[in-house]
């Protein structure tokens, strides 16, 4: 037992050196600017980010901008593509405009830079490989097959839909929101930003809903470590594409 513990310590040390020191996201004067509302002194940028995200998630959940003829398709692949395009605007373009036009800030500060790719790429690949057999098993369960099989399409089409859908989702929640909060409340932002991600899964199978908090924390941790959304987005796209493409009704 002593040998196992001793041998584990050098491995842990190598991993820690490879990861590097914990990243910091110091606030600028603009990040620290506050506004008073009803006696509450609020960090302006972080508060705007929260309001934008809550509004965007609610509008998306309510299918406000999706026409009736698309809603009638249920979860068919064309409806999924339409919602993905809606999210490009609602989850992608809207926060991007806020950063550029309202915050007058650089997009890289909200996860759109390449970040520490030497850490991001191997973790995203390893995480996807670990999750692949679990996802394949879940896809065979009746509740997952019933939910995801209607969205099946050729893999290339699924990839396009999932890129259009999940990259803006990662940007809105674990880019725009999380990095704004990191400069206001510190690492607790990783936990807080997971909440709208969990809520967006409320209609999905129970196992997926209950596991989403931990998966969201893992994605948030990865973005915090790398300063970029791209590696969590790549893993998210790969996992969802595998899930939908292998979901077969019994």
Describe the structure using short key phrases.
single chain; 250 residues; mainly alpha; two-stranded antiparallel sheet; 2 strands
Q: How would you summarize the topology of this molecule?
A:
Elements: H1 2-19, H2 29-32, E1 34-37, E2 40-43, H3 44-61, H4 68-71, H5 77-103, H6 117-139, H7 142-148, H8 155-185, H9 188-192, H10 194-199, H11 206-226, H12 230-246
Antiparallel strand pairs: 1-2
Helix pairs in contact: 3-5, 3-8, 5-8, 6-11, 6-12, 8-11, 8-12, 11-12
Give a description of the structure.
By secondary structure, the protein is mainly alpha-helical. It has one domain (30-246). It is built from 12 helices and 2 strands. The protein has helices at residues 2-19, 29-32, 44-61, 68-71, 77-103, 117-139, 142-148, 155-185, 188-192, 194-199, 206-226, 230-246, and strands at 34-37, 40-43. The chain has a two-stranded antiparallel sheet. Strand 1 (34-37) and strand 2 form a beta hairpin. Helix 5 runs parallel beside helix 8. The protein is globular and about 55 Å long. The mean pLDDT is 93.
The count of strands amounts to 2
Helix segment count?
Answer: 12
Structural class per helix/strand content? mainly alpha
Overall geometric form:
globular
Mean pLDDT: 93
Strand portion? under 5%
Summarize the main sheet. 2 strands, antiparallel
Please, how many domains? 1
What pattern of helices and strands is seen along the backbone? Answer: HHEEHHHHHHHHHH
Distance between the termini: 47 Å
Major sheet strand order: 1-2
Q: How helical, in percent, are the residues? A: over 70%
Low-confidence stretches: none
Radius of gyration: 19 Å
């Amino acid at each position: 037992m002593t040998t196992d513990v001793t041998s584990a310590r050098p491995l842990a040390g190598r991993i820690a050196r490879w990861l590097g020191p914990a990243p910091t996201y110091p606030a600028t004067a603009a990040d620290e600017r506050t506004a008073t509302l009803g006696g509450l002194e609020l960090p302006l940028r972080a508060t705007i980010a929260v309001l934008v995200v809550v509004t965007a998630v609610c509008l998306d959940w309510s299918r406000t901008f999706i026409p009736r003829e698309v809603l009638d398709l249920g979860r068919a692949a064309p409806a999924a593509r339409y919602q993905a395009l809606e999210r490009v605007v609602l989850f992608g373009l809207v926060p991007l405009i806020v950063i550029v036009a309202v915050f007058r800030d650089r997009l890289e500060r909200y996860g759109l830079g390449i970040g520490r790719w030497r850490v991001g790429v191997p973790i995203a690949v390893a995480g996807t490989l670990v999750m692949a057999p679990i996802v394949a098993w879940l896809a065979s369960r009746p509740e997952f097959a019933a939910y995801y099989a209607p969205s099946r399409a050729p893999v290339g089409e699924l990839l396009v839909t999932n890129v259009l859908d999940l990259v803006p989702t990662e940007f809105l929640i674990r880019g725009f929101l999380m990095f704004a909060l990191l400069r206001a409340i510190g690492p607790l932002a990783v936990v807080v930003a997971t909440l709208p991600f969990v809520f967006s899964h409320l209609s999905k199978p129970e196992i997926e809903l209950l596991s989403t908090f931990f998966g969201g924390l893992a994605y948030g941790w990865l973005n915090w470590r790398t300063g970029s959304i791209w590696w969590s987005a790549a893993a998210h796209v790969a996992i969802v594409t595998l899930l939908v493409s292998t979901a077969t009704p019994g």
